[in-house]
Amino acid sequence: QAAVKRMEMESSSSTESFLAELKVLTRVHHVNL
User: Fold this and answer.
1) Hey, what's the torsion of the CAs at 11, 29, 1, 4, to 10 degrees?
2) What counts of helices (H) and strands (E) characterise the chain?
3) Three-class SS of residue 6?
4) At the N or C end, where does the chain have fewer CB atoms within 10 A?
5) Distance between CA atoms of 28 and 18, rounded to whole angstroms?
6) pTM here?
7) Which long-range contacts (CB under 8 A, 24 or more apart) does 24-27 make?
8) pLDDT 10s per residue in the chain (33 long)?
9) Residues 6 or more apart from 20 whose CB is under 8 A from it?
10) Is 19 helix (H, G, I), strand (E, B) or coil?
11) Which residues of 7-18 are buried (b: 16+ CB within 10 A; e: fewer)?
């Protein structure tokens, strides 16, 4: 199973939030990621 996060294309703040979270996830080294 996999969890998938979907980005809503309604506002630029949600885009910024999504990209910020993506940057954090690229730094995390975890077996399940």
Assistant:
1) 0
2) 1, 0
3) coil
4) N
5) 16
6) 0.49
7) none
8) 878 877 666 667 878 888 898 898 888 877 776
9) none
10) helix
11) eeeeeeeeeeee
